[in-house]
Amino acid sequence: MNTQLVPMATKMLFRWTGEQLLDTRIVDLATVMAAPSGFNRVAWIMPFFVLVLGLAMVTLIVQAWRSRPLVPPAGVVAAVHGADLQHFRDQARKDTEI
């Protein structure tokens, strides 16, 4: 008699002992968790593959976002640096002298 095809309730009706029920349950789980083969191997590998692929995609997207140049919104004055900044400071001092 194949114990995998007999539901737990039927086994209990035939007054199986707790130890017999536990033993058959362990055997059932052992066959399910056995080393994968064929399509089962794909079913075991795909979640990990998709997780790694998703992490790689997120990493690439974040790197792309971080490396793109920042474009100031229209109407915003760009920051002035270096010699131009010094020129504007000198001009402001000269214009505000009393």
In short:
With about 100 residues, the protein is mainly α. About 65% of the residues lie in helices and about 0% in strands.
- What is the alpha-carbon Rg in Å? 36 Å
**pLDDT averaged residue by residue:** 79
Give the biggest sheet.
Answer: none
State which percent range the strand residues make up.
under 5%
Would you count the extended β strands for me?
A: 0
Number of individual domains: 1
What helical percentage do the residues reach?
A: 55-70%
* Net shape: rod-shaped
Secondary-structure content class: mainly alpha
The DSSP helix count reads: 4
Describe what this molecule looks like in 3D.
With 98 residues, the chain is mostly helical. The protein has one domain (8-84). 65% of the residues lie in helices and 0% in strands. The chain contains four helices and no strands. It has helices at residues 8-13, 18-32, 39-67, 82-95. The longest helix is centred in the middle third of the chain and has 29 residues, at 39-67. The protein is rod-shaped. The relative contact order is 0.05.
Set down the secondary structure blueprint:
Blueprint: H1 8-13, H2 18-32, H3 39-67, H4 82-95
Keywords:
single chain, 98 residues, mainly alpha, 0% strand, rod-shaped
